[in-house]
Structures are given as C-alpha cells and as structure tokens.
Design goal:
Elements lengths: L1 E8 L6 E9 L9 E5 L7 H18 L7 E4 L4 H4 L2 E2 L2 E2 L35 H13 L4 E8 L1 E2 L1 E6 L7 H7 L3 E5 L7 H10 L3 H4 L5 E9 L5 H17 L17 E4 L3 E5 L4 E5 L6 E2 L4 E6 L8 E5 L4 E6 L4 E2 L4 E7 L14
Parallel strand pairs: 3-4, 3-7, 7-11, 9-10, 10-12
Antiparallel strand pairs: 1-2, 2-4, 5-6, 8-18, 9-11, 13-20, 14-16, 14-19, 15-18, 16-17, 18-20
Helix pairs in contact: 1-7, 4-7
Amino acid sequence: MKKSVETIRGDSEGIAYELPVYRVSGSSASAPSAYIQAALHGDELPGVVAIDALMPRLRKAAAEGRIRGNLTIVPRANPIGANQLLFHAAQGRFDLGTRTNYNRDFPLLDRPDVSLLPGDDVPMSADKRLKARLLKLSVGHDIVLDLHCDDEGVAYLYVPDELWPAMEDCAANMGVDAVILWSGQSGSSFDEASLHPYLKMPRKEARLESRVVTTVEYRGVSDVYATVAEADAQGLYRLLVARGVIEDTWIETLKTFAGVVAPIDHVEMVPAPCAGAILYHVNPGDTVKAGAHIATIVRAPGEDGGRVEVLAPQDGYILTRRSHRATRAGDDLVKLVGTRPSDDARSGALEA
C-alpha cells in the first residue's frame, strides 16, 4: 500500500490543505477497481472510522497477494471543511467562502477523461479545486463509494436508477437497511458526477450492469463507535470480495437484499408545523401507519394547548430524524419512506 499526499491550494497566500491518499495496485488488469472516500462533509466521521477499520484488512490482503483490482482510498476527502469551526461547532457541510454545499457543483464530464477537468492554474476557489481533484482521483474506477452520514438514521444507500437492481448485492453485502433510488439531476453531487460520463456512452461500453456508484449514509453523525466501525468495515470488505476486487474464499457473500427499497419520490420530508422543542415518538427503523403520532412540538411550555402533534402523512418507514431538539417552523423533522409517492415530492437532492 502506497501513501501520497495531495495538496489543495487555499484561497489566500500561504494557505494550503493536505489530502492523504492510499493506493494498492491489483494483480489483474481485468479485475474491477474501487475508489472509497469519506467525510466529503468534513465533520461526518462514521465513514472515516469505517475506513480506519478497513485498512488492516486491506493491508493483510495486499501482503498475501489477494488484491486483484486497483484500490484508491481517501479517508478524509475534505480537509477544508474539516477545518471550518464557528464557536467550537464544526461547519463541514458548506464552504464558508462560497456558501456552497461540498457535495454539490462537481464538474459533469461528457466522458471519463480527467484531462477535461480544470487544472490548478485555473483561477477558482479552493472548494472547486478540491472537487476537481477528487474527481481526478476517482474517475475510471468501476466502484465508487462516497461515505456520508445523516443526523440520526439507519444505514442506507442512494443508488442511481440506472444501476438497480444490478447493485442489489452491494446493499446486501454492506449490511445497510434501506436503498433510495434516484434519477435525473441532484445538483451535481459527487455520485451524479461519478456516473454522468458513463451515461453519455453506449450502454455496452459503459458497462452499467457491473458499475457501482453510491452515496452511503452511515446512520447518524454521532454513531462513531468501534463496534459499528468494525461492522461497516466488514461490509465494505465483503462488497470488495463480492465484486472481485479482493480474493477471499473465507468470506461468504450475499446476492439478495431484504431491506427497504423505494424511489426517491416516496420520501416524505415531514416538517415542523411550528417552532419549539421536539419530543420524538418514533426511532429510525420504525414502521408507522398514516396518522401515527411521530412527534410533539412543545410550542408554549406549561400552557394549555401549548403542544402540537405531528402525524405521519402516510404508511411508511422512518429513515432518519433530526439530531437537534429545537426546531423552527417549517424545518424538516423526519424523513419517512412512504408506500406511495409523496404529495410534495422534491426533485433532485433531498436536502441542501
């Protein structure tokens, strides 16, 4: 395993950011290659510790000559966001200079050719340089995994429609609970930018049936535990074995996914009807019926009628909920996967 350090020039003189990258050369030119990155939103750590737990498995496989396909690993993909703090609170989701989400506005290439990406000599902000560099590192890999997390939630994947159900084995081997299928545009997120060049090619040449591109949501932002990291690392390793990147006859791989699968227009973002304190009555992973009491907003503490009930808009599965307990009117509280399309389904990316 070889380590290199990518340098991202900052927006001011004397400022630069370092991006460690680990690579393993596979033994077979015909084997699929894989790219894994974590913490594109700089303060999301479940994927970081999952990669940390995965690395000993990869080193052992490399030492035993069992890695067949090339591997590129970026444990912390966003050193800019990781260094953004405001009054001791991490601010890793949006670039503070451009106010742009770090998982939006990636370059959309017409073909998988990194020469089409802007170089460091092009005048642009540091967050754009970072996005161009991450695509340069990832383009050309057959498997692209972007590890994120939600506020509080189950483990789930965002999978492009074009890659399902061929990616069913990936969801099964990673051990996630749900899959959300999306199509169209998502604000030029990393997964959209990773797939876009291949959608411009003839299907046979693009090999979509064997391609993996997914955003992985590893539960909630506080789910950073050794046991969970080990389980997630085992899921990543099992996926690499199932797809032929790594050879391991001792690992049993899976083909069928038994979790929740739904199109993105079935996702209900249930808003708060008023401001106040949130009392949740459901947990991620719960199944509810339409009209079920999913939360209470304490609007006027101590007053008669000072509580407002929030009800499930339809039958469904609780995918996530907000980690904060103080809400404004209109803030999303719960992400519910319904049994039918949402009446106010949002196109493209679900959240900012």
